[in-house]
Amino acid sequence: MEVPSSLSLISHLFDSTSSKPYNIIPITIIRYCSSSSSSAALPKQATRAKRPSAASTPTLPPNRPAVHLNKVEEFKTKGFAYNPPPTKTTLISQKPSPPPPISATTATIDLQEKLLYLDSFGIDLVPLLTTHPPLITTPLPHIKSTIAFLSTTINLSPPALNRLINLTPEILTLPLSSIIATVTFLHRECHVSTHQLRHVIHRRPRLLTSDVKTRLRPTLYFLQGTIGISEINKHAHLLSCSVEDKLIPRIEYFNDNIGISYDDTILIFRRFPSLFCYSIKNNLEPKFNYFVVEMGRDLKELVEFPQYFSFSLEDRIKRRHLRCVEKGVCLPLPAMLRSSEKRFMERLEVCCDSSLPVRNSPFWKFKHSDYH
Q: CB–CB of 212/185 below 8 Å?
């Protein structure tokens, strides 16, 4: 019996197994095909060749013979599929899963605890969350530490604490070390006593939320060095003001717009530092225009009495100026504005039939310290 060729054998096997297609050709068949081409010159044997044992089956080296590769290519050209054996894959350990998110129940409980704690101080948390949303995620222990420091160290009363937090809710989210640094700065460098500290913070709560290096200390050096304010503890509320955005523009207004010399302008702010807090558009401009146009006063009076800008234009300046005009009296600014209503009327009646007061008259003399 003749030994069939390798291609006919392969075709016969695939045809016979067409009902059950195989995706991978058995390695035994491929080995048989590779060996049949090399044994074609041998004489045909009538007897069936013995099946080699597993021990005697040669193992193919990693680099297979060119004959074997040619046969595989021949299979492909004939339309047979050849899928190489799968390679070994190395399993990669999975990344650790992230911690489970905080449940809605836990967040609700934390928020309720904040509401109850702040409510014990008379503080309503709901409107604060609108103006400062980070309060939602601020831990309750941090809020307790901040309030304990404000209540014990600064000794703020519950009403004062309520006012401070409502005006500056971000103080509850600031690091406690930042608040301590501000209080230390006010004590050591500004010489603000413990008793004065409560009044300073009540007047200017934003001091506790201002940074010492970028805001408080530069303003301190400007007020002491440029303006020449020696007792800075009496004007500590100015320390949270920006030098570039608030202090310098007001100096430029008096120097450039009004026409007062630079030295007199510095003297004005040295005598009345609170002038830095007044709005140029809503305070300084309308009062200066009335001073020049309606009252016809000299600029020297503003240098001597800069407290003129601290009085109400409608309720004090205009009303008393018109009464002086009706009586035909021209009182100095301090005599016209700083006295009470009763004292003003008495002075007005005395001056109706007399000459203008002289410089050494009590109606003219005043001390700038009386208006600080």
A: yes
